[in-house]
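Input record (one chain):
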Amino acid sequence: MSLTGGNRNDVTQLLPLLDKIPAVAGVVGRPRRRPDMLFADRGYDHDKYRRLLRQRGIRPAIAERGQSHGTGLGTFRWVVERTISWLHGFRRLRIRWERRDDIHEAFLGLAVCLITHRHVQRLC
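The corresponding structure, as predicted from the sequence alone:
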């Protein structure tokens, strides 16, 4: 994960995020290091990023600006928005007060553990 300033445009972090995807083990052979497909909202709608994704062998599924909804991409976005909402339930993560990245990431890890624990408790 990479921490950036609060007012950075998300699209500037698209390629660095893809570069940091760890190897996924499982099937015999060389581990996968990239997804087959990338879902994104209208904020990522630019030919440059579509081209760069295709060069990496990733099929872009990016909603286009000016087009009506109905692509189904909103269902995937809702998962992300919901998760961010859960993380904002922790006051310390809503506004970043810590100056050091490692402390902020530690609180983020604790929040994810607590969220996961709450969901596992519901299943039991």
